[in-house]
Amino acid sequence: MASLVRHVTIDCADPYALAMFWAEVVGGTLGEGDVPGDEEIEVNSAGVPLLFIRVPEGKSVKNRIHLDVTPENGTRDEEVERLLALGAKPFEDHRRPDGGGWVTLTDIEGNEFCVVRSAAERLATA
After folding, report:
1. 124: containing domain
2. Is 45 found in the same domain as 10?
3. Phi, psi (degrees; rounded to nearest 5) at 44
């Protein structure tokens, strides 16, 4: 017997705004009936659903868990540029001269996440 991940849950100040940001990141849609002001908003996509829950306290330390995203189409660097245009902020750049590595960004509430190379990029350097 094993457990399945039902959601990845993210505490936040504004579930709707953060869910809208992440829906754009993952090409997802909001849960049926989810509207601004709801205490919980779900984002459904090809991956595991993301659940955003309103909490009263703000983020105060580094995330203990974070998401790694990889572009479906295009390159890691193109995806970084797309996400910055959506409102993400640069945090740490771990790209290496050989093309490996990742870029750490923060979402619109300051949660860290990483952008890694696409499958095609990984195959090209294997």
Report:
1. 59-126
2. yes
3. -105, 135
